[in-house]
Amino acid sequence: MNSKKMYFILIMALAINTEIISGQETISPPIAKIILKADTAHGDVRLDPYAWLRNKDNPEVMKYLQAENKHTESIMSRTQPLQDKLFEEMKGRMPAKNESLPYKLGGYYYYSRNEEGKSYSIRCRKRVNLKSTEEVVLDENEFAYGKKYFGLGECEVSYDHNLLAFSFDTTGAEKYIIKFKDLRNGKILDDEITNTSGLAWFNDNKTITYTTRDEANRIYKVYRHVLGTDLSDDKLLYYEKSEAYDLFLYKSKDQKYIFALSDANDTREIRYVNSETPGAEFKVLIPRKDGVKYYAEHFEDKFSIRSNEVGNNYEVFTLPVSDPVIANKKVLIPHRDNVLIQNVEYLKGYAVIKLRENGLARIQILDMSNGETYYINFDEPSYTVFGNLNKEYNSETYRYSYLSLTTPETIFDYDLKNRTSKIVKMQEISGGYNKEDYMTERIFAKSYDGTQIPISLVYKKGLVRDGNNPALMYGYGAYGGIMDPYFSSEMISLLDRGFIWAIAHVRGGGDLGQEWYNQGKMLNKKNSFYDFIACAEHLIKEKYTSAEKFAIEGGSAGGLLMGAVVNMRPDLFKAVLARVAWVDVLNDMFDKSLPGTMSEHTHIGNPEDKQVYYYMKSYSPYDNVISQNYPAILTTCGLNDSRVFFWEPAKWVAKLRALKTDNNVVLLQCDLSSGHLNSSDRYEPVRQRAYQLAFILDQLGIKK
Length: 704
Fold this sequence. Notes:
Helix content: 10-25%
Strand content: 25-35%
Structural class: alpha+beta
Number of helices: 13
Number of strands: 38
């Protein structure tokens, strides 16, 4: 169908839908005006009717977003009792007072706690032992007071533990303000640095490095600041000129080195500086090489390098600090074709290696005194496990968190010498929870090319597979992100209402290793969509659920997944939740002024290449909305989002509403005071989740 014919249909559909909506008692949805913008690439002309919605400074855009919010609230008002009930259920499972497990760093034990009636955490410490007097390091409530949005970024103590550097964002744009606190007297220092991202302390206790953002919100420069000096005197330590890269700072566990990581999705380069020499310059560790990703740590006068240069599943080798060149490489952990090395942590005398084998995480211990290796074993067929704040290098105890779809987070301390684990904390579920009431499964769906796609399921015992069960399936499938099954106390509210909760481990994620990611990126991106559809079809075929009872969910790049599958197979789903959905893919990938565009080219491709252009055009959700029936859709955005811009869901909703041929709702909820990430507020994300789940329940006909 040519562009002119499509937009004749769009305008006619718009007129028809306006007449239908005008008869409703609720506030009618706003009708976005059509201003055609023509773009030409490779001789192909695309007409965009809603490009004008990109202009945040246009009063008409703000008026439109506010009208969308009013319409959404008018529709969702009927679910208010259900929202309130869900919120109280979820909040009721959260202990009114909660304290994190303390971790040791230097001569202090650090922890955070929540007080009843307060929305934000209070970060504290005790000196020498846990019986000592509590010192408040940072009370987030003080800085969040009166602000519509507050997100804490970094929170790092100096090497001598006397000063705190912390950062926060009050807009959601992820442009953080760094402030400093003297922990000896509680005073906030005059130094303040704006437009930042990360930070790290030098060991002189008065100098920090920090990163800043450019106009497109890319993290691109590293500076050095000495406390008490003017910001104009801050020295630029490194400028990442390639627009494909972002910069990240981190400090080695033993506190001896600061690393600056240049990251472009498929290529990484690291610079380093000794923490004892604040006046020194960063040096390149291993020069960047296209397609090579590596990560660095330091222990015992060696740099540890985890690199994919010899194979997708990584190897680990060391370089001497005295002469860190590849000629001096010594392999510590060799590459294996069937085992992914995800991460390596060092504690004195030991390497703790997180592996991934057959889609499951494993933890292997390497005793570096004798080369012996052994595993920490887990019993459940599907689970999540990860290291938990192992800040102290000089320790023989490794702390890790374990959870599954039915097991709340349980924190263990593992004695590396005696090879024994003990539980030190279990996630408290107020009001009672019995994991024996629920069942988990790990099943597989066959995708279009025969690939077996894992699906993790949880539901209440006694469920009958008769096709009448409501179901919610989550998917992401991007950047090699791993979606291990995890416990969510919020989801109990669905499970106790008879729901099946499913996680589709589609290609594009890293659930089954690097090759799993490769099969869902670039010119293989549509595999993510085919896999998700195959999972949905399998659950329906096996009578876990039916199309009339089926809801799906994804956010950010998972919103791309949602937008694509509802264009391809809208008949499979009853309701869709697409949070901060990235749906205007093709237009974004032509706009180099946007943060992330250049790095995204390494993930899904550059449409300036003709083959990539037509492939991307074939799935970009906004470009593929057509005149057909769609399920009910709720999508969200944040006005200050610098990752997925507000206009993406806004344009998508406008086009869906104009072209679709059904009477199902399409709702946009735009937060005018936030961005991509949740606030640090303890309760606001829970309230938002109650809102989202109320939408799903309502669309599936569940009113209580």
